[in-house]
Amino acid sequence: MKKKLTLAAAGLLLISQLNAADSNTPALYLDTAQPVDQRVADLISRLTLEEKATLLNHRGPTVERFNIRSDQWNQCLNGVQWDKPTTLFPVCVALAATWDTNLVHEVATVLSDEARAIYNGWHLNTNASGQHKGLIYRAPVINIERNPYWGRNHEAWGEDPFLTGRMAVSYVQGLQGDDPHYLKLAATLKHYAVNNVETDRQKLNANVSERMLREYWLPHFRDAVVEGKACSLMASYNAINGTPNNINHWLLTDVLKGEWHHEGFVVSDLGGVRTMVEGHEKKQMTYEDAVAKSLMAGCDFSDKEFMDNIPGAVRAGKLTEGRLDDALTRVLRVRMRLGEFDAFDKVPYSKISPDVINSAAHHAVALKAAQEAIVLLQNRGGLLPLDRTKIKSIAVIGPLADRVVMNNYNGKASQTVTALQGIKDRVGSQTQVQYAVGGDVTGSSNSPTALSEAVELARHSEVAVVFVGTTAAVEQEGRDRKTLGLTGNQDALVQAVLAANRRTIVVEMSAGPLTVPQLAKNVPALLQAWWAGGEGGHAIAEVLFGDVNPAGRLPHTVYASEAQVPPRDEYDITRGFTYMYVNGEPLFPFGHGLSYTTFKYSGLNLSAKKIKTDGQVNVSLEVQNTGKRAGDEVVQLYVHQVKCSVKRPAKELRGFQRVTLQPGERKTLTFTLPAEKLAFWDDQSHGFVVEPGAFDVMVGTSSAAIRLKNQVEVIR
């Protein structure tokens, strides 16, 4: 068998071959002293048309003449995808619930460490077991949660573009690293744009106004591109206003590359070109036309269809060589910055050892993330935290009590801890912990016997903890939710357990919001624990017993009823979507979350009462822990335009800080509020406008719990 060369060895061999063939034509693209763009241009000048096409197939074969692998991408959304164990983190909607950008950066740094370590292990030992993975990673998913039924809400960061933007920047920077010359990984933003319905997604058309696009559907993508410097974006399957995103020149070129000056590349979703031929109605075309139109619109990288049809499209005059070379430049520029064409040990990230993969230190970060993500929704009568020194018997009940729910884009987990195991690990020998499944998430294996056993166990225990929620059978890629309520017999299970034992705690383990008004009305203590990753069971137990003071906050609205949610084909959020425009009171508001301690807000101060349309104001206040436990508070800054010529949100999030306070401790927090964050999109001028007038500046513990309020006036 012919032994494969490493990229570094292949590069040295190629230099030797080229110099031997023509001493006047050195391989400039392998010279690290040269600017990246000159190196890329040199490499492109050496490629045939067919080789160029091959390198734009993200699953293509190796270009043998230069020994350049084409298949160089992977997934790492909340755990690096590999055929060996990697660290499993909570899903992204749970990470959003931490409202902690520093933690999100830390999580993404762990993910990129493990991804680089896999790559390094392959280069250090080409015969090592385990899949060989590249350095282009398809994360994060930053689609916005307008649709609470969306099957992929667990992959995203909630319903608010400001919160999502802050999380996206932290995650992207953690993946890509901070070296001025080399990328650690290349992050790919998914799915650009207006994508949050799974049903018929390959042919779905979203009718969206320009104002909604600019104010709601695009700001977080802009943040991740302009500030986060994300290397690539994935064009989503859907169309916007009749134009499929894969051939949407306005979206991929005018906005992304023109306005935002994106220097990286656009990749189609898997089969994206195929949807032009077989999916979108009235847009069906030949594969050659679909490839040409995709590239000319700004899609740079795709599937086998690119490799097979680019040469013909160029020869037929449907695709210009200039645009083809631009696409290749964008892809190869990223690969150059990843160090693929340089000596292995020249790249600083080559020093990351495979020993870090799935390490104890990384599991500690996963535990911290799970702890910070848990939201205390309600706690009537102070039932929580439980005193494990006094409780002699605990009933642990529910179909998710002894299960760790996985999602599509994480690794092969090991050492996962269920909630049942976490509780057992946390109590002493004097406490009896018994388990009953009670039912099933989907209802496929419900039985009266299982329900009866759970009820009897609850009746004869001092406290009952019921774990309910969703699994991939309810919400997942390709599968939207059918209901916002509990599926299977879970609602009946909770009601029956509660009737048997009033000291019942319900732990929700779902991705999307659960509309459970009867539970909220009757259950004394309610927690949202999400799909909590490999260490989730320990985190849940620590919150239940007070070893960790919960401080997670909801990144989405939990609607009071399904009738409160506008139709899923309505893309104008002013019709009642999200905390900004919700009609009526929600079950639990955006930003909501309780604590085992109390906090006092005081001294809201604005650095100026009036600011110009291009100015800014500093907002400061003091927060004090007035309780007896240390805890984190998430201070949230909202704004509202008092009078406006167009319909504006009741509140818009414009800042947040998670702060740790010891009992009695005070801290002064400061936010910077630029006037540009008070703007709305004007359909007449096709630009953002800051309208003069009064703006409420509000600080609170959620979008519905404002503690302090002041006003600033914007003047010309």
Overview features:
716 residues, 20 helices, five-stranded parallel β-sheet, 24 strands, disordered N terminus, TIM Barrel, alpha/beta, Rossmann fold, six-stranded mixed β-sheet
Describe this structure in words.
The protein contains 20 helices and 24 strands. The chain is α/β, with parallel strands linked by helices. Strands 9-14-13-12-10-11 form a six-stranded mixed sheet, sandwiched between helices. Helix 16 (448-459) packs parallel to helix 17 (490-500). It folds into four domains: 1-31, no CATH class; 36-356, Glycoside hydrolase, family 3, N-terminal domain (TIM Barrel, Alpha-Beta Barrel), CATH 3.20.20.300; 373-556, Rossmann fold, CATH 3.40.50.1700; 599-715, Immunoglobulin-like (Sandwich), CATH 2.60.40.
Write down how many β-strands occur, each being a DSSP E stretch of 2 or more residues. Answer: 24
Distance between the termini: 74 Å
The tally of structural domains comes to: 4
Q: List unreliable stretches of 5+ residues.
A: 1-24
Q: So what's the overall shape?
A: globular
What's the CATH architecture of the largest domain?
Alpha-Beta Barrel
- Rg, please? 27 Å
What CATH first level of the largest domain would be assigned? Alpha Beta
Bin the strand percentage: 15-25%
What fraction, in percent, of the residue positions are helical?
Answer: 25-40%
Largest sheet: 6 strands, mixed
**Integer average pLDDT:** 94
CATH topology of the largest domain: TIM Barrel
SSE class: alpha/beta
The CATH homologous superfamily of the largest domain: Glycoside hydrolase, family 3, N-terminal domain
